[in-house]
Design a protein that fits this description.
With 126 residues, this protein is mainly β. It has no helices and eleven strands. It is globular. The termini are far apart.
């Protein structure tokens, strides 16, 4: 059974930084793309970032480009999201996810992801 566990969330002031981690177990980590999504209260879940299994190709939502960096350590079965210059509008529950299938193209919609973690809360105060 594939399991994803996020960590690293918390409360931070605007302009601050956080690093989220997502540990994956239950299957071989490296051939699969990974993604981060977030969901704010009363809003739909939205794409944040994705990374190809090689770690060489990434994709970001426009709202976080230049501030967030996704990376992965295939030896540690872990994907990271470094978040800098955080803004109050970044407040949300952050989820990591991975597809059941191996895609050649980075999936950026939630429908393309099959396994999800339970999320970690990020709160940015103004």
């Amino acid at each position: 059974q594939v399991q994803l566990v996020e960590s690293g969330g918390g409360l931070v002031q605007a302009g601050g930084s956080l690093r989220l981690s997502c540990a994956v177990s239950g299957r071989t980590f490296s051939p699969y793309n990974m993604g981060w999504f977030r969901q704010a209260p009363g809003k739909v879940r939205e794409f944040v970032a994705a990374i190809k299994w090689t770690g060489t190709i990434t994709n970001y939502a426009g709202s976080v480009k230049g501030r967030f960096t996704i990376s992965r350590d295939n030896a540690e079965n872990t994907v990271y999201l470094q978040m800098n210059n955080l803004k109050p509008e970044d407040t949300a529950v952050y989820y990591c996810a991975t597809p059941r299938l191996i895609y050649g193209v980075l999936p950026i919609t939630s429908a393309q992801y099959d396994y999800w973690g339970r999320g970690t809360q990020v709160t940015v105060s103004s």
